[in-house]
């Protein structure tokens, strides 16, 4: 479990006050380390992975959650020396999460349980956070008491998850899709539209890797900020439509994508709930690749050109807080960020941004719009990683106000 919400149990004779509610003595007792916290007893059930458990309370029914289901539980966790590091019981609020989104010991262990069952687990380090995980997470073998309150089944992989059927619609890019439920209205989103969808995604072997349906929370995002298969595919849909997509690797995350991203062809069921289409994003200027001869260049190498004059003579200082509208491109004309596209200005202190912005904004007056060509050493460097753009960057910046 996540350890950001660490709690310390306050000892009381009759009750514990927690977030405005009372924890009974029985509940407080549930958070005390059990006598066998250090190691599983001989009678414990053990799996091939090394996970050990005993049943503390029998549940009802015979159905058990699968690895991709969403569960609601109460739990308390201890290190083997009896130190409690996390407890939903102490917080007085059950935890709900997808079973494929937690440590391996939980993913495996909860699948052994039925609703209403309470079980004690001894989870070895390799199924938890490791021996020395850092970041405040507990290391080594962990002991958990877990009560499965309820679970919701995850969407099942369709029969044709592995490959698009012969009657699927195919585009020139290789994207295949099939309408499951027709929509209404006829209007379709554009590449820069902001869409709200429900979706589930599987690898071609039927493994569910992500689902807004399981989370019971629709996803909202600009279509031009997701994988290419989504950008192209959702533009085929109208509101209320549900469509199944088979997205080849080159339109998804590739065969060697980011860590944790699913590889190869992916299958998605997508329902378009709504969308809004803002004005199109600013186009890259003709001189995006390099500053023109008439640009102003400072000693640092920063180049700029006034696009629209401002008013007054007051300019911000290096520590001023400014409000701006901006759009940024790499020198090949690819837009990577834009407050204009979001329709919301950005406000920040000038000493907390890249050096090219800190220097450049001090040249401007309110109302002025200026184009900057910022060399790599005044931006993010040549190969910054972390999704940040490298090399020289071009920005159009409007100084809306100085706070």
What does this structure look like?
By secondary structure, the protein is mainly β. It folds into three domains: 16-152, Chitinase A, domain 3 (Roll); 169-276, Chitinase A, domain 3; 296-402, Chitinase A, domain 3. The protein is built from seven helices and 23 strands. The strands form four sheets. Strands 3, 4, 5, 6, 7, 8 and 9 form a seven-stranded antiparallel beta sheet that branches. It starts with 15 loop residues before the first strand and ends with a strand. The model is unreliable at 1-26 (pLDDT under 50).
Unreliable spans: 1-26
Strand content: 25-35%
Average pLDDT rating? 90
Share of residues in helices: under 10%
Element string (H = helix, E = strand): EEHEEEEHEHEEEEEEHEHEEEEEEHEHEE
Structural class: mainly beta
Whole-Å distance between the termini?
Answer: 42 Å
CATH class of the largest domain, named Alpha Beta
Main sheet?
7 strands, antiparallel
Gross morphology is globular
